[in-house]
User: What shape does this take?
Amino acid sequence: MPVPPSIASLPSRTPELGALLESWANINSGSGHAAGLARMCAALRDEFARAFPAATITEIAADAPGFNPPGVKALSIRMRPAAPIQVLLCGHYDTVFEADDAFQQCRWLDAHTINGPGTADMKGGIVTLLAALQAFEQTPHATNVGWEALLTPDEETGSHGTVPLFRGASARHNFGFVFEPARPSGDIIHSRKGTGGAIVTCRGRAAHAAKIPNDGRSAILGLASYLLSAAKVPAELPGTLVNAGNIKGGTVATNVVPDFAQAELDLRVTKMSDREPLFACLETLAREIGAAHEVKFELKIWLNRPPKECLPAEEVAFAEWQRAAADVGVAPFTWIHGGGASDGNFITEGGLPNLDGLGPIGDQLHSDREFCRVDTIAPRAQIVAFFLHRVAAGEIKLPSAAFHAT
Ligand SMILES: [Zn+2]
Assistant: This one.
């Protein structure tokens, strides 16, 4: 099957796509910055409305009090919702860089590489998604495939306001595509760890530090002992990660045996079956160390994003993905496990097979060194568009959505 002209010619759009990415990345849209998110949402809406006049664009409230600033919106752009095959394409438009962050503007590192907030994670992915759909729309069998682009404002803080949207969208599509950046090697993602956390509170007994003998019980020493042990848990339970992210405790006066200390942990699991052993291990440690130090632990522990485990239908699709990549001239790449979570985790939980890491090549995410290789946007979009063209032509069979609600 030849590559249709609209797909073959995508690389000629590189300067224009780079300029679009620069304009979007120059809009501060940190997850907590309501006004910036609203500006970004409006910019996306304008661009997609211009690109797809026949699409239905809906702004959906994504309020999650305590997690999202009030009034944030997700954008759903839908084309041909009655077509026999339905695909979901996802991108988040928030970044980790807040309104007062020093990292605000883009800078070109060379003719092909842009440094700027969200250039790779993941406004570059949204540019890729847009360009892919524009090229796909001009292919001869496009009417067989309906699509939804779901663009969300809260991925970096855990997608608390948009989880229901991913669950709902998972139920009405045959396959999903997540445009988080590709790895510097070009590799995409087949699975991701699930993420969670714990708040560990330690309560001891206050006493004058110089009292002899001393009947105080230090909450700080108890917690320190707990954290040292907790850090060793991943060695016993491979596939899990435990990171002590912060710690507080004690009083202003240092001559007091402190009766309070608290830490927050970041927890990760590779498989859903890792969850119970990890939680049990952390609970056991609390009991044992509590007894040894004569302190009391309270553990609040949760999993936010479930792990994204690789599904059989994704293995079939990945072989086709590689074939499409070879046909449009993209250098060979493979797929790998990623420690970080994405909204692909929720889509998998919703039962929808999906490929992740489909955006352009970039690196140094969540730092002021973040960059995107702009010359990889068009080639990555070509893979998407050519894969969808083969789906539309009936050459690639996506899994049935029959078990999903419609
Ligand atoms: Zn991120």
